[in-house]
Design goal:
heterodimer, A: 300 residues, alpha/beta, 5-stranded parallel β-sheet, 4-stranded parallel β-sheet, 9 strands, B: 146 residues, mainly alpha, 3-stranded antiparallel β-sheet, 3 strands
């Protein structure tokens, strides 16, 4: 019998469309030892976990665990099964993802888990930084978890992952596109985030028709998500997204747009949201695809 | 000056990493993140006396000093919450401190490819390493004068 891990009943979460997708730090602190729950840390800095993590948490490394070593793609069903089995995760396990940088990579890991249809994957609101800021415990002890039997499930990219062909078709049908990068990247003034290396794409600008809503607008300074009301004001009010719109989000390599994908699909309940993980690193290098620019010419 | 020669100590670090299986290289990098020498009092809290490496994704500062015998000492200020970047600093401190100005300037910019680091750390991060070395070299050229 599968142990049922209860939802976090926090009032803030109840206003989201899928409150079961998010947990608060206070709730997690009380449920760390729940049977059927596994906490997984996914960071941009691949060494952060080793310097200290939430007690009992396993590490899922976006670069070494989730990506195929050769092809620019995610692991296949066998690779994913092997990974999760080794972390003691079964198909019924509740996974709570958390990480650095306001959960960019945690949202990305959750999105990849969703490609494999993992049913109960949640994010820790506020991620690693909030946990630390609240003085909650960290450990460097790596848990020894009994390997589990995670089944081999074919990855299904159709529902929540967009490829460049999908984006081209989306432009033709005037589908909604959300560019979640910084305003400077969107305008074409910069090729990467301010203060980051200006490499990776040969052209600057954005996909035609895309609206710019930087991912950060969905987050508070402590890394938590804004309230449902605040999020609706941004995405439905300002941006004018309507429930049922076919939406594609993108950024530079797909991790910041995983954050926005989570906001739109899980917190606001939009039924058709895809993440274009090829993002600007692909689009800005593709020969002859259309680009819009609101700044001067930028060439890499 | 021969371009392409890796200073002896740095070569030892490179070999140490290259000989490790892929899964142990991250552990070795973590080990080096703990070996960044503490800042001397004259630099502690004086980031204005150091140069920020903007290419790194976290606040990261470097200063280089040259002794009368032309030997180089590098100082790094990197936050503990950026262990990967601190690991780079530990590698550069361990591998280049005590080398001569000429030796540091001759170090190949992409020496880290010989360590297999690109197999475990993302390209964006590794550009930070290249950027740190580039700024060190620039500082040394400025100090050496025309």
């Amino acid at each position: 019998m599968r142990p049922v891990v209860e939802r976090d009943p926090a009032e803030k979460l109840r206003a989201y469309s899928h409150p079961e997708r998010l947990v608060t730090t206070a709730w997690l602190a009380d449920h760390l030892h729940d049977p059927g729950l596994v906490v997984a840390e996914s960071d941009e800095d691949v060494l952060l976990y080793e310097t200290g993590h939430i007690p009992g948490a396993v590490k899922i490394d976006w670069l070494n665990d989730l990506n195929d070593a050769v092809t620019r793609d995610y692991v296949d069903g066998e690779g994913f099964a092997l990974l999760l089995s080794s972390k003691g995760v079964t198909r019924d396990t509740t996974i709570v993802f958390y990480g650095d940088k306001s959960n960019w990579w945690a949202a990305y890991a959750l999105w990849v888990a969703s490609l494999f249809g993992h049913a109960d994957a949640r994010l820790l609101d506020g991620g690693r930084q909030k946990w630390i800021d609240e003085g909650r415990p960290l450990t460097t002890e790596v848990p020894e978890r009994e390997p589990a039997e995670y089944p081999v499930v074919e990855r299904d990219d159709k529902a929540i992952r967009a490829f460049r062909e999908d984006v081209l078709a989306h432009i033709a049908t005037r589908g909604r596109l959300v560019d979640v990068r910084s305003p400077q990247e969107y305008s074409g003034e910069l090729l990467a985030m301010p203060d980051y290396p200006q490499e990776g794409a040969l052209r600057g600008g954005h996909i035609p028709g895309a609206a710019n809503v930087p991912w950060k607008r969905a987050a508070n300074d402590d890394g938590t998500f804004k309230t449902a009301g605040e999020l609706r004001a941004i995405y439905e009010g300002e941006l004018g997204l309507a429930h049922g719109d076919d939406v594609i989000a993108y950024c530079r390599i797909g991790e910041r747009s995983s954050h926005t994908w989570f906001v739109l699909s899980q917190l606001l309940g939009f039924p058709q949201v895809r993440n274009y993980d090829g993002s600007w690193v692909e689009w800005g290098n593709l020969v002859r695809v259309p680009i819009e620019r609101s700044a001067g010419t930028v060439r890499g | 000056m021969t371009v392409g020669a890796v200073p002896v100590r740095l070569q030892e670090v490179v070999d140490e990493f290259a000989d490790l299986p892929r899964e142990l290289r991250l552990e070795a990098l973590l080990d080096y993140s703990r070996r960044v020498p503490p800042l001397p009092a004259r630099l502690e809290g004086h980031r204005d006396a150091m140069e920020q490496v903007h290419e790194c994704q976290t606040p990261f500062f470097v200063a280089s000093e040259v002794a009368d015998d032309q030997r180089v000492t590098l100082w790094f200020d990197a936050p503990p919450e950026a262990p990967t970047t601190r690991g780079f600093a530990g590698i550069l401190a361990g591998g280049l401190n005590g080398a001569t100005v000429g030796e540091v300037l001759a170090t190949p910019d992409g020496f880290w490819t010989m360590m297999g680091l690109h197999e475990v750390v993302s390209p964006l991060r590794l550009r930070g390493m290249t950027a740190i070395l580039a700024r060190v070299k620039r500082q040394l050229r400025v100090q050496a004068g025309p």
